[in-house]
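Ticket #4471: complex job returned nothing on first submit. Input attached below:
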Amino acid sequence: MFLPVLRRDAAPGAPGFIGAVVGPLLVVAFVTGIAALVYQDATMTEIVLLFGINAIMVVGFQIFAGSTGLVSFGHIAFMAIGAYATAIVSMDPFDKSIVLKDLPKFLFNLHLSVIPSLLIGGGVAAVFALMTGVALMRLSGAAASIATLGLLVITTNVLSQASKFTHGPQSLFGVPQDANFGWVFGTLGVAVLVSGLFKWSRAGLQARANRDDLIAGESVGIASLRARLVPFVLSAFLTGVAGGLYAMLLTAFSPASFAIPLVVVVLTMAIVGGVNSITGAVVGAALVTVLNEAMRRVENGTHVLGVHLSAPTGISAAVLGVALILTLRWRPEGLMSAFELQFDRRKPAAGEPAADATTTAQPETFSKGDSHASQRV
Amino acid sequence: MTAFIQHVVDALSVGSTYALLALGLTLVFSVMNLINFAYGMMLVWSGYIAMGVINAGVPFVLTVPIVIIFATALSVAIGWVAFRPFIGAPPITLLITSFGVLLVIQYIAIVIYGEGPRILQLPALFSKDAHIGAIRVPVLELITIGTGIVVVALFYALLQRTSFGAQLRAAAESPNVARLMGVKPDRVLMIAFAISGAIAGVVGLLWFAKVGALTPRSDLNPTIEAFIAVVLGGLGSIRGALLGGLALGALETLMDVALPNSALGYEQAIVFAVVIALLILRPSGLAGTTREAT
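Support reply: We reran it on our side without changes. The output follows.
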């Protein structure tokens, strides 16, 4: 009898591995179900899709942050690169003749369908991550954060100057509007699957071993650069794909779309959910989306229990800020901490006392999301 | 020759603004390893207060101390409410907390002042040029350089000659030993925030006197320039912050003069490429202090 449990580590052997990979997929299925209900409301379609893309983004970010313990601002740069690469290969040549008429011939004539476009978006981001990561992944702590912020600044700077490929600082428009429910949530499922496979793989365990104790890790033969580089490149691939979907959702965007506000959203989702958990990434994305949407309604003026609520525009950013500080203060590891939803034959081992506490906390989280969702429909 | 001297004055003026910026940022970093993303917002708030005070008809001589007092108080308040609970937390937690603080104080500015740009009306003197022989120098640049010298002198006097300064240096050098010697960590932190805030008040005035207008989102530029200057000089080093700021001023002026027009758009990318290269090749910064980025 396999039962869902919350645990930090996978149970031993192949059944444990499979149980650990399938668990987060169940969370995705659950979230997708709620999203599908909300999606029926025509005014909510874009928000649901944006949630899905953000969730892919956060899952991608989590692979890196969770495996290495570093905070990267560079992932927004990978998202931007994925968005532009996807746009270039998927746009109709007729639309390119308006905004990108100076593209080299072979790129100009490309007109790929959704899957190859997204794969190319992710691939270009991954190659870029590999090239920069060789240098960046030597840094730790504050230096790594500033250097990856530098990567973001350099990327947006170059994107807005390379007009031949990007239409410069103006917006690039004419991207086919292909980001529908199936693609977005299908990709989210794949992202979580890849993320789970990596987390419990040899490379994933090595990365986390080095994160927890660098000296011990290196002394048993884990090369620290490689242990960081693998999750860096893998997460860049997923964020690149998320960027591609983002391009296909917005259809028009500029380098300025990939700036600090987006960093804040992704970072908040990851921190609130718990940087060390894939389950947490999905839960965090869902919670912050609900919070944002609630605040957007408050901005427009709304009635809750007969009380009229309204606030000046921008309150959602401030609420995100408060959510960040409160999470870090009272639950610094995020809602899910390092726990994952897993399937296991056994009861959790005696060494995991916190599991029970989180087991009760988790359904509560979901019911919150649920009640908000049902209000909307 | 005159062109060269003008460029040097430019570089010194820009550099001293950056040096002060970096000084305020690195001071708090040295005590609690905080990379403060909300720092630029302190400048913006100082700018808004200056605007309010000037528009209320207060003479400029009084505006300066009012702004400095306000910025100091604001900085201490933020430090007390938002950062004091995190003493001893990992640097990444602190960095993300500062993001939260930034979002909140930015929102308050948006609510009060709106998103649109506001003009900072300064006395006519600030927009004039001084003629020294054949050289024409904006008065603001001379004021900036002068202010830089005065602030740094005051800062060193405070750091080297007072008990506050001694506690601060002790806590930065070895927090545990300082604690054992009876230096209270939260008190030191508040001193650091107070000085950092006062400096932010001064820099805020200089910065927005030069830019002319401010919006609630004008904070990103100064924050980023401060980060760069701090990294160039070596994270957490006071002397490094000053050197890093001057070096950044020189680098930017040099690029303005030397880069061909086609490459001017890439200035930001070039500066950050230098920063990343320096972080990797020489993590202790130009000043070469022993303190490593942690």
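Chain A touches chain B through 42 residues (CB under 8 Å). Closing as resolved unless it happens again.
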